Amino acid sequence: MRFHLQQLILFFVLILFSCQSEIETEPMDFGYDYQPMEVRLFWVYEVDQTIYFGENDSEKTTYFYQDIIRTSNINTENEQVFIVNRSKSADKNNWAKEIEYTLTRRDFPVVRTSQNHPLITIVFPVKARSVWNSNPYRDAPIEEFEYADTCLADQYLVRQEESTDEVTYFDHRYQLYNRGLDYLKNIMKY
Fold it and tell me: What does pTM read for this prediction?
């Protein structure tokens, strides 16, 4: 009887280890295509700015920025750093160089560094109502950015600032990210 019990246990152990279970999982979509990073990619976007000086006194300006990823290198933390040239134009024909900044993806956040001020501009995975501190890499107050809901699929609005004292101060800043845009490679020579 004992021999049969040992054989039965051995039989179950062999069955247990011989079965292969396949778990199919879809790869998680982090949304990296909301902020593509590749040398020679560029994008153009429109900026609408209104400066209020007082009641019934304001100045509205519309202009365009063009950001071109010029080159990349590897930093001391072994991260790929993309160098971006930003130009400004009033008519999308005549561009004047404005500033140069860097983009670095550190696992899940993208850090934009301009004039030695690192700022987390987007985090992955891209998800509505996610909130993050945009200033963890510098000695500055916590400044929360948030993905706001939008009406369109594959589009996220990053709310960067929404403050007002309803009398003299009104500062609303946001940046819109679209998934799946055909980012064109720039053929210009630098």
Answer: 0.73
pLDDT in tens, 56-86: 888 899 999 999 999 999 999 999 999 999 9
pLDDT tens-digit series, residues 38-58: 999 998 888 888 887 777 888
What's the pLDDT tens digit per position in 140-154?
899 999 988 766 677
* Structural domain includes residue 1: no
| Residue 3 forms part of a structural domain | no
Domain count, the chain: 1
DSSP string spanning the chain? -HHHHHHHHHHHHHHHHH-------PPP---GGGS---TTEEEEEEEEEEEEEETTEEEEEEEEEEEEEEEEEE-TTS-EEEEEEEEEESSSSS-EEEEEEEEEE-SSEEEEEETTEEEEEEESS--TT-EEES-TTSSS---EEEEEP-SSTTEEEEEEEEEE-SSS-EEEEEEEEESS--PEEP----
- Domain membership of residue 163 (yes or no) is yes
